[in-house]
Design goal:
With 650 residues, the chain is mainly beta. The protein has two helices and 35 strands. The chain has helices at residues 3-22, 636-646, and strands at 49-51, 54-56, 85-88, 91-94, 112-117, 128-133, 157-160, 163-166, 168-169, 179-183, 189-193, 208-212, 222-226, 265-269, 272-276, 278-280, 286-288, 340-346, 353-359, 363-365, 372-374, 396-399, 402-405, 422-426, 432-436, 451-456, 459-466, 471-472, 509-510, 513-514, 532-537, 544-550, 552-555, 558-563, 575-578.
Length: 650
């Protein structure tokens, strides 16, 4: 490759990188759901709820998933979708931001967009916001504080001629005739009479002030009245109070929104109908919460709406008595008792319970049948009575003048056949017991090499009659209880996971159990694909798996070594070179003239060539570079000059 061509390739490479890092894109997926009509939730697609006879996304009302909707009662902003809880005439409600102008976000009917201090701010501080508020037409009504002019705090009590009277916020919505929107020192904007007086006179003809309308069967609403030329005000133009409905509006003007009890609703499937309440979700409308009828299942509910709960699963006393629902729903006797092969629902107790009728080999039912207990092995252990022998139907026998435990070996015994060195012998009361073939449980020369069961803590083992004397050996539990890595003392020697866990530090520090049991680091990297193996990093507080050393291999008598050039542990050691080759790597042609691979990094230094022999040029390099890979030059001309000056090869 020529010097110029090498520099050109390098420049193209860096320009490609520049484009790769400069060109970015972002976007958003817009979802336009198909609007469909409905009566019940079942009529809607998954994830949608029937509200106002339209399938739509529904947000929980109790401040859970997304918070409460606009118009619903609240105590704090955190309960609302909008995060704004605003005062109303009677109690607070969830509001939402609004703005003026044709393109602004308007408030629903019967609400006004008002400017006020952020209700979430502490001690009255914070920025001013515009929120939808319940309008209270109290303009020019006498007052003693701002709260006399409206619960939202947006309308202020102003000092005017003749006393203190209510203004009205005009941050978004303008003022009526003969009022001016005045900016107050604290940032508020309030409608105030142009003549600074709320009296009706020649100069204020046409001016409006708040009033209370006529009362009907539902209540009385606030409105306005206008100053006339005769010196009096017109009748109040307040709208009539209406019967309250579910719409997020105070229809009857009692200061409460949607304060009524919705009628019940029904859902029918086939010929079965369930009745339930409707819930008012303010502007979202009424939602039927009646259950959809279905076949009765055990869940403490009346699924088929016949007035009875779980009737197929209970008896006349209301107790759950089936095999799959014994005592309670879901208590399946088929898997309720560990190690039980079969069990039944025992209806004898006041509360039915599962009772094991057969246990797995090595276990037997407890006296009340509620457990499958592990069969104890007390053969030849000293005893005073049958109860000392613990196992079912095992007896305390007198053998060779010593009272020792036998073991049941009758046809119905829970135990398997007698162990080696024992025989099944008929004893008193018609029972058969395992007894020693030697006729004694005592360790003596005649019984040398005999064995008997023993235990250490919860570990079972055996003793053998051995040694000079002879005597019973120490209980051998290790043979039957090998230690495994599971966080337990399997062989009852007082140590946990010895052989897997550093008993001094208490940590798991081996490659096969790194940090915790069975975390095998060798499984994370493949010697064949990634040319490395996993190792356990014990320098951490909790050991963790890390990539181990790169591997070597011999091919046709030549030793190669793998190198992690890109520093990425996920692909292991990705570059192979002749062992020790750091400086031999002639740049390849483009494309290869021999049909072989192009741009092969023979010495695994990250480029096709040797870094110390090359000058680097980049179209996005900053000024002042020296031509190295980390500080490239900006132009080919600079590169050519530097190549000659520094004695580089390409």
């Amino acid at each position: 490759m020529t010097t110029t061509h090498r520099l050109t390739v390098m420049k193209a490479f860096f320009l490609g990188l520049a484009l790769a890092f400069t060109v970015t894109a972002c976007g958003r997926t817009l979802i336009f759901p198909h609007v469909s009509k409905c009566v019940f939730d079942a009529d809607c697609a998954d994830g949608l709820t029937c509200v106002d006879q339209t399938c739509q996304v529904l947000v929980d009302v109790d401040g859970g998933r997304g918070g409460k909707r606009f118009g619903e009662p609240c105590d704090a902003g955190a309960q609302c979708e909008s995060t704004f809880c605003l005062g109303g005439p009677v109690g607070s409600f969830c509001s939402k931001p609004c703005s003026g102008g044709d393109a602004g976000e308007a408030c629903p009917d019967s609400y006004a967009c008002k400017g006020l201090l952020d209700p979430n701010a502490v001690d009255g501080g914070g920025a001013r916001v515009t929120l939808c508020a319940v309008p209270q037409p109290l303009l020019c009504q006498s007052c003693s504080s701002d709260l006399d002019c409206g619960a939202s705090g947006a309308d202020s009590c102003l000092g005017l001629d003749g006393g203190a009277f209510c203004g009205r916020d005009c941050t978004v919505e303008g003022c009526p005739p003969l009022y001016a929107c005045e900016a107050l020192a604290d940032g508020r904007h309030q409608c105030a009479p142009q003549g600074k007086a709320c009296d009706c006179g020649p100069a204020t003809v046409g001016m409006q002030k708040g009033c209370l309308g006529a009362r009907n069967q539902f209540g009385a609403c606030q409105g306005n009245q206008t100053c006339q030329a005769d010196g009096g005000f017109t009748a109040c133009n307040a709208p009539p109070a209406l019967q309250e409905t579910c719409n997020g509006v105070d229809d009857d003007c009692n200061g409460k929104i949607d304060d009524f009890v919705p009628p019940s609703c029904t859902r029918t499937v086939g010929n079965v109908t369930c009745t339930g309440p409707q819930v008012c979700f303010a502007t979202a409308g009424l939602v039927c919460t009646a259950r959809a009828p279905q076949a009765e299942v055990c869940n403490y509910a009346d699924d088929d709406c016949n007035g009875k709960i779980d009737e197929p699963f209970v008896d006349a006393l209301g107790r759950y008595v089936t095999q799959a629902d014994c005592g309670t729903c879901g208590n399946d006797c088929g898997n309720a008792i560990a190690h039980a092969i079969s069990a039944t629902c025992d209806t004898g107790p006041a509360v039915p319970r599962c009772k094991a009728t057969q246990c797995a080999p090595g276990f037997y039912p407890s006296a009340d049948g509620q457990l499958c207990l592990e069969l104890p092995d007390t053969l030849c252990q000293a005893c005073l009575s049958d109860s000392d022998c613990v196992g079912p139907n095992s007896q305390c026998l007198t053998i060779d003048g010593v009272k020792v435990c036998g073991r049941d070996c009758s046809a119905t015994s829970a135990y398997p056949a007698c162990p080696a060195g024992y025989q099944c012998s008929a004893v008193d009361a018609g029972l058969s017991q395992c007894t020693p073939v030697t006729g004694t449980c005592t360790c003596r020369t005649a019984t040398l090499n005999a064995t008997r069961a023993c235990s250490v803590d919860v570990c079972k083992g055996f003793q053998s009659c051995s040694g000079t004397g002879p005597t019973w050996s120490t209980c051998d539990v290790a043979t039957f209880n090998p230690e495994i890595c599971d966080g337990k003392d399997n062989n009852c020697n007082g140590q946990i996971d010895e052989g897997f866990r550093n008993q001094t530090t208490g940590r798991y520090e081996t490659a096969g159990n790194c940090g915790f049991c069975n975390n095998d680091c060798t499984k994370y990297w493949s010697p064949t694909l990634q040319h490395t193996t996993g190792a356990c990093d014990t320098s951490l507080t909790m050991p963790a798996c890390m990539m181990g050393a790169c591997l070597t291999e011999v091919v046709a008598g030549t030793t190669y070594e793998w190198v992690n050039v890109n520093g990425d542990t996920s692909d292991g050691c990705e570059c192979r070179r002749v062992q020790g080759n750091l400086g031999v790597d002639l740049p390849d042609r483009v494309p290869s003239s021999t049909g072989g691979a192009s741009y092969v990094d023979e010495n695994c230094d990250g480029i096709d060539g040797v870094q110390t022999d090359a000058i680097f040029v980049s179209g996005i390099a900053t000024a002042g570079g020296n031509g190295s890979r980390t500080a490239p030059l900006q132009t080919l001309a600079q590169g050519l000059a530097a190549m000659q000056a520094q004695g580089k090869k390409y």
